[in-house]
Amino acid sequence: MTRESPAKDATHVTTIADSSLSESEELLPLHHNDNGSASAHPPPPTQSKKVGTALFYATSSLGVIFANKIILSTFKFPSVLTLALFQFTSTTLALKVASMLGYVNLLPISVKGVKSILPLSTCYLLNILTGLSATQNLSLPMMVLLRRASILMTMLLEKWMLNSQPSKTVQLSVGLMLGGALVAALGDLSFNLMGYIVIFFNDLFTALNGVLLKRTSEEYKKSKMTVLYLNSLLSAIGVSTIILLVPGEVERVQTFHLWSDSSFVTYLVFASLMGSVLNLAIFLCTSTNSALTTTVVGCLKNVLTSYMGMFVGGDYIFSWLSFLGINISIAGSLVYARSTFRG
Fold first, then answer.
1. Which of 103, 217, 257, 290 is the most core-located residue (most Cβ within 10 A)?
2. Which residues are CB-neighbours of 262 under 8 A, at least 6 positions away?
């Protein structure tokens, strides 16, 4: 998981949540018209803000990926669902506390608001769960590479849903990333069919979640943090329900033998807190830049993820074909970064 650092949260949150709504005002439904008010058309974000939110996302994502990998693969924690619940809950509580302290403005929950956020929350929940499952079933270098398919999906969905038109350079970089991922997959000596299936659905839900998040954040002009709060709250409720319905899930967590291990508990707490930071970072990066940028901004951290992942988790098997594919895909990521953030 859930935006990937903590020291910058208050600054970013205060910048985003500067509306002056009264406590009695209800959450705005999607497609609400503001009658041409100035607040409905804020100035476009500066280049430094775009780069800053992208770097914030890249940093927090790197921390979460390695923390999750260590918990699920090194310590062999048996429940992806429980780890997701900890991260959703930490995000919800963090935003609620920030609201009580006056750092963010969360609008009152309404039925209309819940209904409008529900599609986003569903994709968000499925994205996190499939991502954690992929982390558990694939080596880090291969997981990073196979997630490249989400870039093409996001680009197509942005064009369809947001009328976005990618440049030739962006299309070329996406082609390089996908081509490198294909080459690496052909050289994957640790092939895991379940991991490949899960990562495909993770790519799909990543694309849907990114595009829906971008559209929702643009349509909620009054309090964008309310979108993140409701998203995390509904996801926490959803994953709690799944945990209770899955046979043996609660028992597996209760009987896990490392609850008394201070190292495991430390990593679990770190992953939960970083999940909260990551959720915020994803939201800020997507609302400031675009869903496609958030999907591929991993180029700023995937170099480290790919190479360091060969040594973390103990499940990467080296092959020259896989190594070549990783480097081709990284080259495409760097081309995209230069095209997006220059100037």
1. 290
2. none
